[in-house]
Amino acid sequence: MDQEFFGMLTAAGEEQVAELLRTEPTAGDPRRVARNLRRLVAGYVAEQSSYHRDPAVLEPLRLLSDLLDRQQHEDGTYDVGNLHSPPDTAFLIQDLCVVWKLLDADDQPATAPIRATVHRILRKAGPALASGGVHTPNHRWEVSAALARINHIDPDQRYVDRIDAWLAEGIDAGADGIYSERSSTYAAEVTNPSLLTIAWLQDRPELIEYVRRNLEATLYLLEPNGEVDVVASRRQDQWAIRDIWWYLLQYRELALLDGDGRFAAVAQGIERRGVGELGDFLAEVLERPELATQLPPATELPTDFVKEFPSQASVRIRRGSRTATIFGGTDFHDLPVIASGLSTNPTFFKVRQGDAILDSVRLAPQFFGTGHFHSEYLRRTSPAVLELGAEIKVPYYQPLPSQHLAVDGRYPLTPDGRFYAAMDFGHRPRDYRELRTTITVAEVANGFDLTFELTGSAAPYAIELCFRPGGALSGVEAIDDSGNHQLVSGTGAYAVGDDRIEFGPGSGAARVAMDPGERYRSHNGSLVPAGLRVYLTGQAPGRHVLELRMT
C-alpha cells in the first residue's frame, strides 16, 4: 500500500465530510445528492479517517438515502434536468453501488437501514437501465458500467445482455486514442472509468486498450501546468480550461497494470499538485485497494515532440516549457450550425511559454456576416510548416425559372446558410462572391510565424490574440477599458514574470470589428473570449505575417 497516497486521499475525504456536515448535504439534484452520500460513506468506513464510524455522520446518511428513495420514479429513473432519464440515473446509480458495497463490507448494524434503502433503489433502477435509451456516445458506457455494478450485487441476465448490446456497437475511438466526442471531460469522467469498470466486473480486458490509448494521447495534450488542451472538443469543454486531476485513478490503474513509468509520473504529478476534488477517489480506492499500491518508478514525460491527431485534425508541438496547438478540425463546414455536440471553436492556434499563455488566435473577415474563419483542413506542406485553409462562397440570387414560379407568390422557407427566407433558394440561379483564406504555421527558432493570405473579394478583417489574464501587455494601444487593445505598429509583448511572448508587426490603426457572424448575432450570441485581447487588422486581398517569439 502506498500509505502517502492513501493518507492524502483520506485527508481530502475528511475535508469533504467536514464541509457536508457544516452545510446542507441534501441540496442539489439527485446526482449531487448521491455524490454527497458517497463522500460521507467513504469517510465513515475508512479506518484511517477521523470520521470512522462517527455517529454524527449517520443522520446525514439517512437523510440523503431517504431523499433519493423519494425522488426515484416508479419506473426506476430520476429527473436530472432530463426527465425520467436512464443515463442520468446511471451516473448516480454508479455512486450508490459503491455506497452499498462499502457499507456492506463494513457491516455495521447502525447502517443496516441505509443499506436496505440503497439496495431497494438499485433493484428498482436495474430494469430501467436495461431497457432505457441514451442521448450521447458516452451514455452507452455509463449505462453499461452501472448495469455491471448492479449485476455484481444482484445478478440478472437482462443486465448482461444489455451491456453486450451496447458494446456490440463498438467503442467510438480513433486509432490515435481520441473518442468521437473529442472531450477531455467525457473521456476522464465517463468513458475511461466506465470502460475500466466494465472490464473489471464483466471480465472484458479488451476494453482496457481503448483507455490505454486515450491516456497515451493525453500525454501529448498535457500542458506543463497540468491543464489538458481541449480546443478540439465537441462538447462544452471546448470553451473551458480543463485540468488533468480527473484522470488520477485511470493513470494509476494503467501504470500498475502495465508498469508504465510515464503514467506513474502523471499520477504522481496530480497527487503532488493537490488540485481538484481528490477526496472523490477515496471511495473507489476503498472499493479496490489495489489501486493504492506502490506505483512503478516514474519516468520522464514527453517534452520535445510534434504529435499529430488525425481524428480531430490537430497538431501539438512541445519544446520544453513551450507548447502550441494547431487546429483545423471544426465541424463548422460539414454541419454549419451552432449546437451542442459539434466542434465550433474558431481558435486555430494557441501557444504558451511557461506562465505566459496565448489562449487563442482567431481571424474574422467582415464578409457577408459569415463570421470567424474555420479551417476546412489541416495539412503539412513541409517538415516545419502546417497549412490551414477555407473558401467561402456567398451567393446573390437571380429570379426563379418559370417552372418554379408560384401563382400566389408564396415560396418555401429555405436556408441560405446564414439565414432563412421564403425564397425557394434551392431553385434559383446564383452568382457568387468568394473569399479564400490560407494560414500557414511555421515553427522557427524561439517561436512561430503565422502567414495569413486572403484572396478573392475585398473585405476588411481582424486578427484576435487573446492572452490569459494575469500578465502585462506592452507596446499596444488600449481601445477601451474592457480588455481590448490594438497593435498599431512595431512589436507588442505579453509577460508573466520572466516568461514573455512577443508579437507583431502591427498593421495600422484601422479598426475592424471582430464579427461573430449572423448565426450568433441573430441570437444575441457572442464569441468574445475572456482575457486580454489584442487586435491586428487588414484588408483582403492581402497578406500578413504574424511573428510570435518566446523568451
Q: Proportion of β residues?
A: 25-35%
Rounded Rg: 27 Å
Q: Summarize model confidence as the mean pLDDT.
A: 97
- From the N-terminal CA to the C-terminal CA, the straight-line distance is 43 Å
- Helix proportion of residues, in percent? 25-40%
- Number of helices, counting only DSSP H or I runs of 4 residues or more: 13
Q: How can the largest sheet be summarized?
A: 15 strands, mixed
Tally of DSSP β-strands = 21
Which overall shape is indicated by the principal axes computed on the Cα atoms?
globular
Q: What structural class results from the helix and strand content?
A: alpha+beta
Any low-confidence stretches, pLDDT <50, length ≥5?
none
Features:
21 strands; alpha+beta; 13 helices; globular; 15-stranded mixed β-sheet; about 550 residues; single chain
Please render the helix and strand layout as text.
Layout: H1 3-22, H2 30-45, H3 55-71, E1 78-80, E2 82-85, H4 86-106, H5 112-131, H6 137-153, H7 157-167, H8 184-202, H9 208-221, E3 227-228, E4 242-243, H10 248-258, H11 261-273, H12 282-287, E5 304-309, E6 314-319, E7 322-327, E8 349-353, E9 356-365, E10 377-382, E11 385-397, E12 413-415, E13 420-422, E14 430-444, E15 447-467, E16 472-474, E17 477-478, E18 484-486, E19 492-496, E20 499-504, H13 518-521, E21 532-550
Parallel strand pairs: 18-21
Antiparallel strand pairs: 1-2, 3-4, 5-6, 6-7, 7-8, 8-9, 9-15, 10-11, 11-14, 12-13, 14-15, 15-21, 16-19, 17-18, 19-20, 20-21
Helix pairs in contact: 1-2, 2-3, 2-4, 3-5, 4-5, 4-6, 5-6, 5-7, 6-7, 6-8, 8-9, 10-11
